[in-house]
Fold:
Amino acid sequence: MAGVVLNSSLMISAGKLHIGNVEISPNLVLAPMAGVTDSSFRRLIKELDGVGLIVTEFISVEGLTRGNLRSHRMMKFLPEERPISIQIFGHDPGRMAAAAEIIEEAGADIVDINCGCPARKVVNGGGGSSLLKDLPQLEKVLRRVRRAVSIPVTMKIRTGWDDSTINAVEVARLIEDCGGCMVAIHGRTRVQGYSGRADWNVISEVKRAVSIPVIGSGDVTTPREAIARLSETGVDAVMIGRGAIANPWIFRQTSELMRGDEPHEPQLAEKRRVLYRYHELLAGEMPERALTGKLKQMCGYFTHGLPGGSRLRERVFRSQTITEIFDQVDLYFDSMIERGVPPDLQGSAADALKQPRDPKCAEFTRAAPAV
Ligand SMILES: Cc1cc2nc3c(=O)[nH]c(=O)nc-3n(C[C@H](O)[C@H](O)[C@H](O)COP(=O)(O)O)c2cc1C
Structure:
């Protein structure tokens, strides 16, 4: 099989994995991101190709089980998004199980339990990463959810609560014992939030400790990094979050590289088309006001590292309407295309991990540190 050789000892080919009875191919996963991975964004990523599994934003089990409209809307997906995993958060085993039943009924392929969210509101309610500190509760939740549904149940965790309580291996073994079908690990502790670098050594230890599929997450921003993490750690798949906002072609590029092909390099005109397509997808889903915020967020991530990108972000941020936003976008891309900016100056996904310095642009990354 064709594959890519990163150096003499690292070689990898496109792979697939099974989560329960669900086949995931290729082994590249869109990370769950609150405020980002709604149906429009997920479909955009699917259209650009190369992704094996997508995960929704996390959804409150309180909202789902009490009939909250917003939570139910967040659960909606279209057939072209399959295979899809719906992520829930909470701490009460009964409610978690009831929410999982709702999700199964909605036709999801997989239900995922969030054990990684660091946000105070979630942690104080006993959910998210606080479950990493209360393994008896985590066990109760998982066993109850497993009994309630027949679709695969998975968990997304962090490496531990803080540096002195790294327990991802113990947690992953518990997940396996309780019948969890996969564990995804973001290589940071709860206390770290999004600071520092993701620790892929811990992810690699987890991979060696369990026989269920292990998916690694954290700081993958280029196709070569994705392939390197797969190869060095042996994880069954890599999950990409912020890198996919800045470069939604990253899954396609990684798949191509794994096949031994030259990765597609989108030019400026194509980047602009993708912004328009994202707008089209959003317009079918939400009113203009909400849509404006989402577009600003996307423009913000999308133009990091582009020459003149910060000026464009400021102008986009000051825009009041969709028309004004696209006027600015068009002005910018027209002038860039005219000047013939070479591809290597057309922005890098690594820039997506940087926060914008201009506080006025905070809206672009407002959701980023929250989960
Ligand atoms: C804006 C944003 C929202 C996130 N929301 C969620 C979430 O709802 N559930 C979850 O498990 N992780 C969430 N995460 C964490 C990501 O899934 C991922 O594990 C983390 O960002 C590290 O991967 P990356 O460096 O590829 O972004 C979120 C991350 C970001 C940046």
Remarks:
- The chain has a mean pLDDT of 89.
- Residues 31-36, 57-58, 87, 114, 116-117, 156, 186, 217-220, 240-243, 367-368, 371 surround flavin mononucleotide (CB under 6 Å).
